[in-house]
Design brief:
Blueprint (H helix, E strand, L loop, with lengths): L1 E10 L2 E11 L5 E11 L2 E10 L5 H9 L3
Antiparallel strand pairs: 1-2, 2-3, 3-4
């Protein structure tokens, strides 16, 4: 996977960095993955969102992540 973007968000009132990476999965399929580390209810939480690159939706990902309470 190669990092293609990093951007700041707020999750549970904490500033965090969303790292977006891309790379091949199997054969010619390209996968885009968002990863973010934040403090959850039980402690440190790593969330990854792997998606086929053509269906990646920035607005949906941002909306989902900022809705975490």
């Amino acid at each position: 996977m190669t990092v293609v973007e990093q951007r700041s968000l707020t999750i549970r009132g904490q500033p965090v960095t969303l790292t977006i990476s891309e790379g091949p999965k199997w054969g010619d399929e390209l996968v885009r993955q968002g990863s973010v580390l934040f403090t959850g209810k039980e402690g440190p939480t790593l969330l990854t969102l792997p998606t086929p690159a053509p269906t990646w939706d920035d607005a949906a990902v941002d909306s989902f992540l900022t809705s975490i309470r």
